[in-house]
Amino acid sequence: MPEGDTIHYAANRIRPVLEGRIPDDLRTPHPRLRGDRWPDRLQGRAVTGVDAHGKHLLLRFEGDLVVHSHLRMTGSWGVHPVGERWQRVPRRAWLVIRVGGTEVVQFDGPVLELMTAGRARADQRIAGLGPDIVAGDGLDEARFLRRLREDDPTRTIGDALLDQRTIAGLGTVWRTEACWAAGIDPHRPTGQVSDAEALAAVRDVRPRMQLSARTGADAHGRTCYGRRGRPCARCGTPIRGGQLGDDNRPVFWCPGCQS
Predict the structure, then answer these.
(1) Residue 191: beta bridge partners?
(2) pTM of whole model > 0.85?
(3) The pLDDT of residue 81
(4) Cβ–Cβ under 8 Å, residues 186 and 179
(5) 207 φ, ψ to 5°?
(6) What is d(CA 72, CA 54) in angstroms, rounded to the nearest whole number?
(7) 90 is catalytic
């Protein structure tokens, strides 16, 4: 699943193309959207903002209309000069917006919906999100800790860091790297993780995620994620791997230096 840095990078690429502009053409070629009349409802409306929060991307149009996207495991956004071959085959495009010589394309959904701005503000998938770890205006650390402590203290820290209501934007890769950087076993109960340790984890990966959001570069470093059986870069102990949480998401850790 694309993590918060990937979504912010997509927003940063889309914003200079669409923001303040009225699309020359807007199409919804996927059969699921054809009956919703998006081209008619958005015709003549300028894009007033392109926002990312955690793993959600919002295209705001005049008239208080918002296109909400969540890519889950399959989706992606592309920005292409008109006539250039798309990154995926055309039949996988759900939304195509053309401004001048550039097309913004959303592929493979699966969450793509047009709603009013009021509904977007009230929607708990968006309104219920925790502080965005990638946001450039500073991380609300107090809010992050408050939400972490409001959660079940027996829940593992590795699972808690994936809860978008606690902190928005972390996925399995950055979760692994955050726990490794702070020396925390992801299986440790949250109630046994100090505030200083929890903050150390998110503070380490935040600037790397911001770099990835700005440049699109893979800033993970992969000190731990996907390295099962390979020596830990810090202590040399072989990295272990498994699944964690109700969703059995992949997790990696060093049994030698993460406790």
Answers:
(1) none
(2) yes
(3) 97
(4) yes
(5) -65, -30
(6) 12
(7) no
24, two tokens: 């020359």
Per the structure block, which two tokens stand in for 171?
């996925």
* pLDDT for position 1: 74
All domains of the chain in start order, with CATH: 4-127 (3.20.190.10), 141-253 (1.10.8.50)
The sheet carrying 47-53 orders its strands as 47-53, 56-61, 65-70, 111-116
Per-residue pLDDT band at 2 (split at 50, 70, 90): confident
DSSP-based helix, strand, coil % in the chain, nearest 5: 35, 25, 40
Helices (H), 66-194: 117-122, 124-127, 141-150, 157-160, 172-182
Choosing from 15, 125, 203, 249, which is the catalytic residue? 249
Report which of 63, 36, 34, 33 is spatially closest to residue 47, judged by C-alpha positions.
63
Phi then psi dihedrals of residue 43, to 5 deg: -60, 130
The one catalytic residue in 27, 55, 92, 227 is: 55
Annotated active-site residue 2? The verdict is yes
Annotation marks residue 249 as catalytic: yes
Q: Could you confirm whether 186 is annotated as catalytic?
A: no
Look at residue 216 and give its three-state secondary structure.
coil
Amino acid found at 236: G
Cα angle for residues 81, 82, 83 (degrees, 5° grid): 110
Asked if 170 and 161 count as a contact pair (C-beta separation under 8 A), the reply is yes
